[in-house]
């Protein structure tokens, strides 16, 4: 058992724009986070991952950075940041920064220089190409609709942007770019931060020649095979590790689109040469994936078990997993895989939490998940703020006419990233207590019944259930380090698995359906005399033969 603090930690993700507004301008900010530090302490989390707070023109809510060493004005000042960092550290909470270095903003001074002329010293900081027959250099589509290339008349060339045209891709093959990035990381480490979440870090190394991709539904070529896990990505991360990461005590997690278990064993190998862990997407892609995101397909439980089990088993003893249902890019899991009706909301929120938090890996809780926050009843396109959602609507409905407006709105209500980005519901006063001004994005109207104040005042709330899951992980090595084994792989409604460590064993049973389910466990899981560790119903059965709607139970035994 190779212990490490980041294996034993629970991380809480803050999307600062939507967390807490301290000055009434309708936008969450750093002082708002400082105000709520005691709330996070009470929840019991160890680490905050802070989505970007750097200077940014906000084309993609801070994922387009114009100054890596400055704070976005909307969020406050560097003094506010330092105060927040100190407030976290005083409470034993660590801060992980979002590192967005696949691209910068087009308003970053490097890019402003780069586009000036072909011989500008910053030209090769980005990826510039000549057009082909008066068109883009290749057929790649950007993640946010349209081509992945933007024409620039100053030099009659195109630059690459895998995301919006205000997010030009950096050229990592240029050693000067790596020097700049590593210097900047070092600067934050010296400030005392505790780690990095690395935005789309699997995409920093592109296949030379940038070949055309297979065209998808939108007519553009898929850059995935030429960009994800590219030829030098491991070399660059090992260099980053040697030059920066290994010199500090950090938590590092790479957001790795397109990562396979084989690749993850390199990125997150236990030998510590690259990163601690990665975010993989296979379980998120089961209802469509990036290229086929806009639909209302449901995730199939048998498939979900297969995918999560593959990750649990393949990385065991070789690399480390991250565990997540939610983040700022995903709709609310309770509305996607659980049941957000009044009757089942809390049960299914607790069931999903149990299923995830009993696995091996470092769990991530996304703001509001611990309250059972749900998807949002957006009424029209005007209610949306997310560039991906808005662009996709224009492209699919107005330009290409592949979907009608009503259908697309239904898909957006189900899958849009904005579902995760409405303000945290603090109490039942106006605007859910998030702001005294006008919030930058609508508040979910269900805040009167779903809010932190109510959750904290009630012993059997989702909040207190998360609190208990987190404290169990801190108390029990088996939850962190135990081996995982799946039971009943073909059962379409029940997720059952065990964890074992030495003489100890956990049996985790989760009913993903609204109906009662029979559970036909192997004899080996029935003999012993179990103790119930945590459950979302009162009086769970010790017989382990049936599960009530959305019931979750964790049994503990010692041989
Ligand atoms: C990552 C971020 C997402 C952002 C994109 C471009 O996927 O999580 O929010 O839009 O990268 O930076
Ligand atoms: Ca504010």
Automatic annotation (TrEMBL):
Q: Name one GO cellular component term.
A: cytoplasm
The Glycosyl hydrolase family 13 catalytic domain sits at 13-421
The UniProt entry lists the main location of this chain as cytoplasm
GO BP annotations of the record are: oligosaccharide catabolic process
Give the Gene Ontology MF terms in alphabetical order.
Answer: alpha-amylase activity
Q: What keywords does the record list, in alphabetical order? A: Cytoplasm, Glycosidase, Hydrolase
- Annotated compartments: Cytoplasm
Q: Which family does it belong to?
A: Belongs to the glycosyl hydrolase 13 family.
Q: What is this protein called?
A: Alpha-glucosidase
């Amino acid at each position: 058992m190779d212990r490490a603090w980041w294996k034993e930690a629970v991380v809480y993700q803050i999307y600062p724009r939507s967390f807490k507004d301290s000055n009434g301008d309708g936008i969450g900010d750093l002082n708002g986070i400082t105000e709520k530090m005691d709330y996070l302490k009470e929840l019991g989390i160890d680490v905050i991952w802070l989505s970007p707070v750097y200077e940014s023109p906000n084309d993609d809510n801070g994922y387009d950075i114009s100054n890596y060493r400055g704070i976005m004005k909307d969020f406050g000042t560097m003094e506010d940041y330092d105060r927040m960092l100190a407030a976290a550290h005083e409470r034993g909470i660590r801060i992980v920064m979002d590192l967005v270095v696949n691209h910068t903003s087009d308003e970053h001074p490097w890019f402003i220089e780069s586009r000036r002329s072909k011989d500008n010293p910053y030209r090769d900081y980005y990826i510039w190409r000549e057009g082909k027959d008066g068109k883009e250099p290749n057929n790649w589509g950007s993640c946010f609709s349209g081509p992945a290339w933007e024409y620039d008349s100053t030099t009659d060339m195109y630059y690459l942007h895998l995301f919006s045209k205000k997010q030009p891709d950096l050229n990592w093959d240029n050693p000067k770019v790596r020097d700049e990035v590593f210097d900047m990381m070092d600067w934050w480490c010296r400030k005392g931060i505790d780690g990095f979440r690395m935005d789309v870090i699997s995409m920093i190394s592109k296949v030379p020649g940038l070949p055309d991709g297979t065209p998808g539904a939108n007519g553009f070529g898929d850059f995935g095979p030429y960009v994800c896990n590219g030829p030098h990505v491991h070399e660059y991360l090992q260099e980053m590790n040697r030059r920066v990461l290994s010199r500090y005590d950090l938590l590092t997690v790479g957001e790795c689109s397109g990562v396979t278990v084989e690749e993850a064993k390199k990125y997150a190998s236990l030998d510590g040469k690259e990163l601690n862990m990665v975010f993989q997407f296979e379980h998120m892609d089961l209802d469509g994936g990036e290229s086929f995101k806009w639909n209302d397909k449901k995730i199939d439980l048998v498939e979900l078990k297969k995918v999560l089990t593959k990750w649990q088993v393949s990385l065991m003893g070789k690399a480390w997993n991250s565990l997540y249902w939610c983040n700022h890019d995903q709709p609310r899991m309770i509305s996607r895989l659980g049941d957000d009706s009044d009757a089942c909301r809390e049960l299914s929120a607790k069931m999903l939490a149990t299923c995830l938090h009993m696995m091996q890996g470092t769990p991530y809780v996304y703001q509001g998940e611990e309250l059972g926050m749900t998807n949002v009843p957006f009424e029209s396109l005007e209610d949306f703020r997310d560039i991906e959602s808005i662009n996709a609507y224009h492209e699919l409905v107005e330009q290409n006419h592949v979907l009608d407006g009503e259908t697309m709105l239904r898909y957006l209500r189900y899958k849009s990233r904005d579902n995760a980005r409405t303000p945290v519901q603090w109490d039942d006063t106006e605007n859910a207590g998030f702001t005294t001004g006008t919030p930058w994005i609508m508040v979910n109207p269900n805040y009167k019944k779903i809010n932190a104040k109510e959750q904290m005042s009630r012993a059997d709330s989702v909040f207190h259930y998360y609190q208990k899951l987190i404290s169990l992980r801190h108390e029990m090595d088996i939850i962190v380090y135990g081996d995982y084994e799946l039971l009943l792989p073909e059962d379409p409604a029940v997720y059952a698995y065990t964890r074992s460590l030495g003489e100890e064993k956990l049996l985790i049973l989760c009913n993903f359906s609204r109906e009662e389910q029979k559970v036909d466990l192997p004899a080996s899981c029935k003999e012993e005399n179990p103790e119930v560790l945590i459950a979302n119903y009162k009086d769970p059965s010790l017989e382990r033969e049936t599960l009530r709607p959305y019931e979750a139970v964790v049994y503990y035994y010692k041989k």
